[in-house]
Amino acid sequence: MADRNIENASTEVPEIPDELERVLVFALDEAKEKIEGGEDVIPFTTLVVKDNLFIESHPGDSAEECFEAAEKNVRGARGADCYAFCYDGYIETDDGVKDALIAEGGVPGADEGYAIAYLYEVDDEGTYTFESEAAYIGEAPNFMAALKEPVAYADDEIDERYRDEEADAEGDEVEEDEEVADTVEKAEEVVEDAE
C-alpha cells in the first residue's frame, strides 16, 4: 500500500502525545517483525480502548480500499484513547524515494494526526535493513477528529467489541496460538506503560 500522500511543510517535530507515540511505535515494531519473518504487511489498525489494545487488519485491492476500511473502523471507535494505522509504503526524501513502514495515528478531537516511519532498504539477497529510530514524516489525517474524549461516552455508547465485558466470567475461553499470545503480551505492556 503506497498511494498515500502525507504532507510535511515543517522541519519541526511536534510533540506527539505519549500514549499515541507508544502505539505508533508498537504498530511499526509489529510490521517490522512481520517483514523480518518473511510475511507481507497487511495494513492494520491498533486501537487503545479502556486499557486494551485491539488490532484489526484491513486488506484491500487498492490503497484507497485499505485506507477507507481503516478510517471506517477507527471513526466508529467511541471510547478509544488513540489509534495507529500501519502499512508498508514509501516516502519521498531529498535522497529520492525510500521504502518505509509507516504508522499514522491520532487522538479524539484533534484536527490533525501524526505519521512516523521506519525507513528500510532491501539488498539483492532480500535482506531488510531498518533505520534504528522511527522518523517523524508529517501530519496525517486524523480518523478520530469527530470523536469526543473517551470519558465522554457511557459504556452503552461504546461498540460491543471494545467493551470491558466479563466474557471470561461466562466461561468463554479462547485458545491463542503462540504468536497471538506474544502480540497480546506486548500490547498489554504498551498500554501499561501509557498509564
Largest sheet: 7 strands, antiparallel
Structural class estimated from helices and strands: alpha+beta
Tally of helical segments: 3
Low-pLDDT runs of 5+ residues are 165-177
C-alpha Rg (nearest Å): 17 Å
**What is the count of β-strands?**
7
What number is the mean pLDDT? Answer: 82
Q: How many separate domains?
A: 1
- What overall form do the CA principal axes indicate? globular
Approximately how much helix is present in the residues?
A: 25-40%
Secondary-structure element pattern, one letter each: HEEHEEEEEH
Strand content: 25-35%
Distance between the termini: 33 Å
Biased composition (Acidic residues): 162-182
Region (Disordered): 162-195
Short description, anyone?
Residues 162-182 have a biased composition (Acidic residues). The protein is of the alpha+beta class.
How would you describe this protein?
- The chain is of the alpha+beta class and 195 residues long.
- It has one domain.
- Helix content is 25%, strand content 30%.
- It has three helices and seven strands; from the N terminus they run αββαβββββα.
- It has helices spanning 18-36, 63-75, 178-194; strands at 44-49, 52-57, 80-93, 96-106, 112-122, 128-130, 135-141.
- Strands 1, 2, 3, 4, 5, 6 and 7 form a seven-stranded antiparallel β-sheet that branches.
- β3 (80-93) and β4 form a beta hairpin.
- α1 runs antiparallel to α3.
- The longest helix has 19 residues, at 18-36.
- The protein is globular and about 55 Å long.
- The relative contact order is 0.20.
- The model is unreliable at 165-177 (pLDDT under 50).
- Residues 162-195 are annotated as: Disordered.
- Residues 162-182 have a biased composition (Acidic residues).
